[in-house]
Amino acid sequence: MKYIIAAITLAFANTSLAQKVDYDKKVEELGIQLIAPTKPIANYVKAVRTGNLLFLSGHGPSKADGTSITGKVGAEMTIEEGYAAAKQAGISLLSTMKAELGSLNKVKRVVKVLGMVNCTPEFGDQPKVINGCSDLMVAVFGDKGKHARSAVGMNALPNNITVEIEIIVEVE
Amino acid sequence: MKYIIAAITLAFANTSLAQKVDYDKKVEELGIQLIAPTKPIANYVKAVRTGNLLFLSGHGPSKADGTSITGKVGAEMTIEEGYAAAKQAGISLLSTMKAELGSLNKVKRVVKVLGMVNCTPEFGDQPKVINGCSDLMVAVFGDKGKHARSAVGMNALPNNITVEIEIIVEVE
Amino acid sequence: MKYIIAAITLAFANTSLAQKVDYDKKVEELGIQLIAPTKPIANYVKAVRTGNLLFLSGHGPSKADGTSITGKVGAEMTIEEGYAAAKQAGISLLSTMKAELGSLNKVKRVVKVLGMVNCTPEFGDQPKVINGCSDLMVAVFGDKGKHARSAVGMNALPNNITVEIEIIVEVE
Hints:
Three copies of one chain form a homotrimer.
Chain A: H1 2-19, H2 23-29, E1 44-45, E2 47-50, E3 53-59, H3 79-101, E4 107-118, H4 126-141, E5 147-154, E6 163-171
Parallel strand pairs in A: 4-5
Antiparallel strand pairs in A: 2-3, 3-6, 4-6
Helix pairs in contact in A: 3-4
């Protein structure tokens, strides 16, 4: 009986392995260029793992050249530019995940996104901005990239970056 | 010995079951009308479970008719109106919990509430606003509804909703 | 074989115990005066434990005399005054941890800090402000005090407090 269960389990495991998407390859296929994670310059770290949850720090829209996308949405930035900034913050988050875990294949599920948009008090399209990050997560991880989310407006972010996004992922 | 321990455990389990409040019934008794959870229109979901934690997305004060309570507290909204909006967001959160879990009786504990209030820069009564949600959680779940909480001010929220509240619950 | 592994495990355990810093003593050595945790005046609590995670409520810069540090950074408060406020919020958080756990030695790791700074829309040095809390955590817990972090700007906080900081810690 034990052996039958073991055999069935193995069969399912093999099936799911066979169907499993290689997330590292997927990132390449999507033409996403991960960036070398910068070291935080203060007494904190980019991510902390506890149990099988990885808590990532708030990430801004850092680019490979070391600069960041800045400006307030509703003032000097459009929704589309905000979306691009949120996508870039997502790329920065993926870069940290890969650096921490060795491979994005260790990600089991994107659990929670807190998307903070630097915007004017009249702006009300924070969800359309944060979609830039959410769409990226689903492009890479498929259904496992779908997450619980808050998308909200901030009056100010560090060095006037356009978005800051923190994320919790379940890992193997 | 083993049997004695098992018997005692069973006895305690029965006692606690006997005393357990039916949260679904409690919601009815309180005259709270849950709303049909709407589907998110983007690449995210209303809630994600990981282990025995359920992370809920930020919920606004959505009403059964599909509209939401809007306006900034300190400007066109009073504290009392903010409190009512936070209660409505709480009803929306309960509705999602029930939809996700099948029954509110699967809730073991409300762990954490992040209550975000759309308000003017001079407003300082965010706790009194978010009490609308906190009081609801305790009305439904009793001591198990008491949670760690932050109640803070935002310069802008999606579509000018009055509050956005996210929540973490421990589930069976 | 089993005994050899047990012996090795024990040896390592002893080593790590021998090297372990007494965090309660460390707080005293640093001249930090913990404050008597005040009871929340609403339907929430200062901290909730679930599994081996302790979620702490947002804490302001409460002082031993019952008053709090107030004022917006970028307006009537400087970065240095903001840093001092964040340190005071950190002391308040440590006070709650000790009250909840009995001893700070039960803290295994500071996991996540959400540092919210009450500031003007033009202010961009939130990280320098929240360092007041982060530096304190590392002063007390060493490498185990290093955490994932977001440091962001808020347009308003309760009673105009200068910072509100919430924290997740892994506990024994």
